[in-house]
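--- STAGE predict ---
source: upstream dedup step, 1 unique chain passed
mode: sequence only
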Amino acid sequence: MATKKPQRNSAFSEAGFKKTIEALKQEIVDLYLSDEIPWVVGYSGGKDSTAVLQLVWLALADLPKDKCSKPVYVISTDTLVENPVVSLWVSKSLERMGLEAADQGLPLTAHKLTPAPENTFWVNLIGRGYPAPRPKFRWCTERLKINPSTQFISSVVQKHGEAILVLGTRKAESTARAKVMERFEQKRVRDRLSPNGSLPNSYVYSPVEDWSNDDVWMFLMQVQNPWGYNNKDLLTMYQGASADGECPLVVDTTTPSCGDSRFGCWVCTLVEKDKSMHAMIQNDEEKEWMLPLLELRNRLDPPKTPDGDRPLRDFRRMNGAVQLFHDRPIPGPYKQNAREMWLRQVLEAQQHIRENGPNTVFDIELITLEELEEIRRIWVVEKHEIEDTLPRVYEEATGEAYPGGSLDDNLVMGATEMELLRNICESDELHFQLVRELLSVEKRHKSMLRRAGLFDALEASFYRNFYDNEEDAIERARTRRDALGEAREKATDELAPIDNSSALVDEGCK
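--- STAGE serialize ---
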């Protein structure tokens, strides 16, 4: 059930719009000049972060140049799977900010942060085989969003000792958000500075925490963007992402508010439906090029049935273990053919958009070469799929030669040999996987001076693949579970205290 958003009066109702803005700018100036702690402004390209950055920019622009020296870092985290329209908007904004800040002599620098190649969405899903995120396995947020910004802020803290985060969080966003913000308000060490709950030596400043949606839009529409972007274009973007296509200017309390559009990752399966992308496509024929993304996202979201995406996933966990739940194996990572399928569909969507989309996306990268190379390494080195199928999948999906280099010049076995091995094993897939993995392990250790770990690696290979088939694995898991259950019961009985009360009574009677 969605959290109800609290109703709040306008932050401008008491002193009026102009006086409130001027007072807030003065507060920002006073806080900026009060110490040498650098600021880190979070910018997502949305309305709230745009309003906060505008306030900070305008406040600093009024300062004499000799007082405007403390660094202000504007950071934006690109998960590499952001809504392409929003991602393009943010990238252009950051470029413009950097140029304008330099021209205006402001100590403000813009930084676009991305997750490390080994942590990206496609490397985890296509490379390692993680299933599409779901509420009970939400592996994406920390890797894609939290870690890049945390690492940047930590580097600022390490360099300067402390940092102040300037964020566009507002209490009116939700009741839950209001409660969190109010809890941290009670721990404030200075006026308007709350402690950061996750990063030591950093504080949070939320200039628009008491603003409503209407307040944000009123400010953006009445105050010119200082880095040269047109805020009406931002309004248009929100309008296009609203289901009814409406996002009017706020003129009084009876006017519908604009701001409930959710701009997030286009692959997100933690929501039932990507309403913003769906609305963009529905409201604007020029955005129909995003339809392949919407279709791919829907295919990633498994059906809400007991089997769901089970046919696409291995019956073993990542380490080869078979774990039962209600007498059925808990599905593990995507199988090899499923991972190849997802890669092919991403590349086909990318190719379709490049060929049929507008000029602004003619070189769009839904998956980067750096990600492809990491996926390829995981497949061949970690998953022992030494047939190295990624270049072939790429060429089939795009019609172009794979741009990456050779993975291993000394590779003595490839796709041809593995196809021959598969034919020899006939329909015994587990036997094929075992022999292939043993060959891979032996080759990896062959060139080592000390072949430390070889026997452990071989043992792990047998542990993963020694079953006759899935049914054999399930039966063995049941037998092991039952045996462990009996052993626990026996141990519990043996350790239970002996009741000697009756014997003591008899002795006393004697």
